[in-house]
């Protein structure tokens, strides 16, 4: 696990790392929340690790989630409007658009695959079969006959997104609930959905029994509790994530409003053994049962009596298969044939498929992926949105545990090597959860690039503090004219680079070009600058280890402004006193600091930093963290013989968007 750092601890990095970004559905291009809420953070961390532990030791994968009812439903509507392509062509078109958007934002996966297309699709089908068979062998798969929605008018079973209703989970504020999950990720059985309506006919669907494969997630509840306790005690996993996980680790329960119980005592006499939470100030009573069978018996009694209830959060069997045509084939087993995987489980192991696809493309052995996903000296970091905590931090952890151990075994959940889950809170839009029905339509990711550079947006989204709270994204260009006052807050963090750091770099280059024949002075660096640099690097590395990206922006701001102040104050002093040695010292100090700033900013604003490296005439060893505190001479040898690339007037390392110059005129 990613251990919690004590006061004086230094981060310990794995020898190898896999970074994953959540899988966007293949029915759309990327909106600003996909990119700003998750992908940019994953990319910054991946780029940092490439510098920190070596590019060859990092694999960053993501891809398009090609299957699932959202894609099928979007394709169905498109066909009704006259689209003539196949569903594969539809998904491929969106996949290519997603891939281009990520490239435009300088997001750099080693592989951005697609679960249904090309070599990644073939590998994903193979991996899915292997995982199913291993889970079956280890005793974690069972057949269950459950109720599925059926449209009597259309004479078809309905997939998840073809049914709309109200989420049955108490307190849920989702505005959309589907057959067995709501838009906030809550899981329930189809029979619990409140006021279901078929998207095909607009009628209330019936429920018919179907048999599917399920992963026995509920049998792992004790192991998941042990895992959550271990993470809470010794890891730097985000607290709200652990709290969310904990909500699902209680025993099965039903919650009954008092107004629905005419005779509570008579009802209780029919229930199997239970515990009760009955507080006078609350409008409901909660009945807690030993297991799901006991809860289901109580639910049957309530339904027979016509008593309305809701189910409390707990672990339930996690559906693996379904009956839709567009999906990854499930291996035929026992009497179950021609089934396909439900999209959620196969999307959870898709990053393994993508890792294997990437390694295979490099000509490496078939089992090479295990060194990245299963070795004690490796770590998998998964960046997700908070709505998906249930799937990644609970269901995936259960499945991956079930792949490693047989059902009767009891592993040490504090020692088991499982992915480190990094959930971000929501990026709001104009103080509200982004919605296409809002007064101001939230922008797609591509649209923002008409007003801001990728590096400006990367700096801003990094700084939002999504590790602990939902934060509003307020691009001034989308506000009514009368509200466009003062600085555009999207530019605030980027100005640190486009204004302050730019000016500092140029001042250093012009100084050596005008005074020292284009050569950096070879002075020893002022001790206070070295100490400030050590402190900044240590802070930055701790924040990166903890994925506190907004704190990185504070650390950079303090350091860059302090170095800029060192330049301004001392150059002025040198000019006023006519002290050439002081000026020479300041130039040496600030070039050294600019080198360190470039290394720290490199994961966030890569293009500007690569340009700095090019003008410094240093090879890629500049990004090697083992040398981060070394003098510039350690990269180039004798500074007296090292030439910098000439910097012409008005050349910027970190650029503003052309539209921002138009606004300034």
C-alpha end-to-end distance: 53 Å
Residue stretches low in confidence (pLDDT < 50, at least 5 long) are none
CATH superfamily caption of the largest domain: HUPs
| Mean pLDDT, all residues | 94
CATH topology of the largest domain: Rossmann fold
Task: Give the number of helices.
Answer: 21
Name the helicity range: 40-55%
The total strand number stands at 19
- CATH level 1 name of the largest domain: Alpha Beta
Write down the overall geometry. elongated
Rg value:
28 Å
* Biggest pleated sheet: 5 strands, parallel
* Total individual domains: 3
In the CATH hierarchy, what is the architecture of the largest domain at level 2? Answer: 3-Layer(aba) Sandwich
Largest sheet: spatial strand order: 3-2-1-16-17
* Structural class designation: alpha/beta
What portion of the residues fall into strands of 2 or more residues? 5-15%
């Amino acid at each position: 696990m990613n251990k919690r750092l004590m006061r004086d601890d230094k981060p310990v990095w794995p020898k190898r790392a896999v970074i994953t970004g959540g899988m966007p559905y293949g029915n759309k291009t990327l909106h600003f929340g996909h990119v700003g809420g998750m992908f940019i953070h994953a990319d910054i961390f991946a780029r940092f690790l490439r510098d920190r532990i070596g590019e060859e030791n990092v694999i960053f994968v993501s891809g398009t989630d090609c299957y699932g009812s959202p894609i099928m439903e979007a394709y169905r509507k498109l066909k009704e409007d006259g689209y003539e392509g196949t569903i594969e062509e539809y998904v491929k078109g969106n996949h290519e658009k997603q891939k281009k958007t990520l490239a435009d934002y300088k997001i750099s996966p080693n592989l951005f695959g697609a679960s249904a297309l090309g070599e990644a699709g073939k590998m994903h089908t193979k991996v899915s079969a292997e995982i199913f068979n291993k889970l079956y062998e280890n005793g974690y798969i069972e057949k269950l006959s459950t109720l599925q929605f059926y449209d009597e008018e259309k004479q078809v079973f309905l997939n998840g997104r073809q049914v709309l209703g109200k989420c049955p989970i108490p307190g849920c504020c989702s505005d959309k609930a589907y057959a067995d999950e709501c838009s906030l990720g809550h899981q329930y059985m189809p029979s619990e959905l409140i006021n279901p309506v078929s998207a095909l006919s607009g009628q209330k669907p019936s429920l018919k029994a179907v048999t599917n494969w399920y992963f026995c997630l509920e049998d792992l509840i004790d192991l998941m509790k042990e895992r959550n306790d271990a993470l809470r005690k010794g890891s730097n996993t985000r607290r709200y994530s652990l709290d969310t996980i904990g909500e699902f680790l209680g025993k099965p329960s039903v919650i009954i409003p008092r107004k629905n119980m005419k005779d509570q005592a008579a009802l209780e006499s029919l229930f199997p053994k239970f515990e009760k939470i009955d507080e006078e100030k609350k409008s409901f009573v909660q009945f807690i049962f030993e297991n799901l069978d006991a809860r289901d018996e109580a639910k049957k009694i309530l339904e027979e009596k016509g008593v309305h209830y809701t189910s409390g959060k707990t672990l339930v069997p996690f559906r693996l298969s379904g009956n839709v045509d567009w999906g990854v084939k499930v291996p035929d087993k026992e009497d179950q044939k021609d089934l396909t995987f439900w999209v959620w489980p196969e999307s959870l192991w898709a990053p393994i498929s993508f890792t294997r696809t990437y390694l295979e493309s490099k000509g490496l052995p078939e089992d090479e992926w295990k060194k990245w996903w299963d070795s004690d000296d490796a770590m998998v970091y998964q960046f997700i949105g908070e709505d998906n905590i249930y799937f990644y931090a609970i269901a995936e952890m259960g499945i991956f545990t079930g792949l490693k151990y047989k059902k009767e075994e009891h592993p040490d959940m504090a020692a088991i090597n499982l992915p480190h889950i990094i959930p971000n809170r929501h990026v709001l839009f104009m103080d509200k959860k982004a919605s296409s029905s809002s007064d101001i339509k939230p922008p797609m990711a591509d649209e923002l690039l008409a007003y801001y550079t990728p590096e400006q947006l990367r700096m801003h989204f990094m700084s939002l503090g999504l590790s602990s709270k939902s934060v509003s994204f307020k691009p001034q260009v989308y506000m009514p004219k009368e509200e466009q006052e003062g600085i555009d807050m999207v530019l605030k963090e980027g100005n640190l680079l486009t204004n302050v750091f730019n000016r500092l770099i140029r001042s250093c280059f012009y100084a050596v070009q005008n005074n020292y024949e284009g050569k950096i002075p070879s002075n020893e660096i002022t001790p206070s600058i070295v100490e400030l640099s050590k402190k900044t690097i240590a802070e930055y590395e701790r924040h990166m280890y903890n994925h506190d990206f907004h704190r990185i922006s504070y650390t950079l701001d303090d350091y860059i402004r302090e170095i800029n102040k060192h330049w301004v104050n001392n150059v002025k002093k040198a000019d006023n006193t006519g002290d050439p040695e002081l000026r020479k010292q300041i130039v040496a100090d600030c070039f050294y600091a600019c080198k360190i700033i470039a290394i720290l900013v490199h994961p966030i604003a890569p293009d500007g930093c690569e340009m700095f490296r090019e003008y410094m005439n240093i090879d890629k060893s500049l990004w090697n963290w083992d040398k981060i505190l070394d003098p510039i001479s350690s990269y180039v040898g004798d500074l007296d013989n090292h030439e910098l690339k000439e910097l012409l007037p008005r050349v910027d390392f970190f650029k503003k968007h052309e539209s921002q110059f138009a606004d300034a005129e």
